[in-house]
Specification:
The protein is about 65% helix and about 5% strand. With about 180 residues, it is mainly alpha-helical. It has a single domain, classed as Winged helix-like DNA-binding domain superfamily/Winged helix DNA-binding domain (Arc Repressor Mutant, subunit A). Helix 3 (about 50-60) crosses helix 7 (about 145-160). The longest helix is centred in the first third of the chain and has 21 residues, at about 10-30.
């Protein structure tokens, strides 16, 4: 019987899982979930996104996003605004109360990034980031078979162009909700 030899896929899955676990633990210290943190970051990068589009990006059902947003709204971090062109659509926006928390989330993210990349020089980190970005682009091109995946890839492309740190977060924190 052949002995299992971990390969790059094994390590990608394991590292992504461990980063999600670390973010879950950090979010719990603030009485929140990783999913709520991801929503706050997405709203900073894409203000006014609809609940449905956000659900597609997070790869969850719209009702799940609605419940998460309900909690964020109750805490005064997010507000829903009607879409001026379609009364069925709610657009999500951050409120000023979210700013201190967003700064803390970014601090936690930076600490985790430092931990994950400890022992690596800047050139190695840049090379790894570029390789991961390339893998993502290949996968996005390959899975464009459904509208949901297209929305995820397109929104990620827009976020990467608008805010380079978005790509880093997704590469290091697997920001999409599992």
């Amino acid at each position: 019987m052949a002995q299992f030899q971990p390969d790059i896929m094994t390590y990608l899955f394991e590292v992504a899982h461990l980063v999600r676990v670390a973010f879950d633990k950090r979010a719990r210290q603030f009485g929140m979930t990783r999913a709520q943190w991801v929503i706050l970051l997405r709203l900073e990068w894409q203000p006014g996104i609809s609940q449905k589009d956000l659900a597609d990006l997070l790869e969850v059902e719209p009702i799940t996003v609605a419940r998460l947003v309900d909690r964020l709204e109750q805490r005064g971090f997010v507000e829903r605004r009607p879409d001026p062109k379609d009364r069925r659509v709610w657009r999500l926006h951050l409120l000023p109360a979210a700013e201190p928390l967003l700064e803390r989330i970014k601090h936690e993210r930076d600490e985790l990034l430092h931990l994950v990349t400890s022992g690596m020089d800047a050139a190695a980190i840049a090379e790894m980031t570029e390789r991961l970005r390339s893998m993502k682009a290949i996968l996005c091109a390959n899975v464009r078979c459904s509208r949901k995946e297209e929305a995820v890839c397109a929104a990620d492309d827009e976020a990467e162009q608008a805010a380079p740190e978005a790509a880093e977060l997704e590469a290091t924190a697997s920001a999409e909700v599992a």
